[in-house]
Amino acid sequence: MNARYLFRGKYGDTWVYGTLSQLVGGLHVYDSTGKVHFKVDPTTIGQCTGISAIKSYRGDKPEDLLIFEGDVLRVPIEHYGPDHPVRIVEWSGGGYRIRGVGSETGFCALTSWPMVNTAEIIGNVHDNPELLKGSTDS
Fold it and tell me: DSSP labels for 5-66?
């Protein structure tokens, strides 16, 4: 499936991935066959950025490493010291950006962020709200 048009959303407690569609009664995500669809919670919908992380809590398959809107990233970079900064992936101003949490509240475009190649997905804003408090423990 083309990552450019890949979405995810929660169907109950389960994340479903596929193509997003507006149907009578709400937003649905079709699976990769295009035959099965799930009505998802609209507040949980996020689009794939098309960029991969080096590591993810979801697993180590290529599709597990794809970064989605709403993912929480950590970047282990020396000049940040032992508390690696946590960043949230958002859609804003016509593109994806990363925004800091806690005392690190700045933001920049995801594609121009020099540390994107070292990003680790440590959670998402829906399942891991504790990460939004600036904690960097995983």
Answer: G-EEEEETTEEEEEEEEEETTEEEEE-TTSS-EEE--GGG-EEEEEEE-SEETT-SSGGGGE
> Is residue 69 domain-shared with residue 99, that is, in the same domain?
yes
Q: Are residues 77 and 106 in the same domain?
A: yes
pLDDT tens for each residue of 50-108: 889 999 999 998 889 999 999 999 876 554 555 667 889 998 888 888 887 765 666 77
Domain count, the chain: 2
Residue 5 DSSP label: G
**Do the strands 120-124 and 55-56 form a parallel or antiparallel pair, or are they unpaired?**
parallel
- Model confidence pLDDT, tens digit, residues 1-48: 555 689 999 999 999 999 999 998 899 999 888 899 999 999 999 999
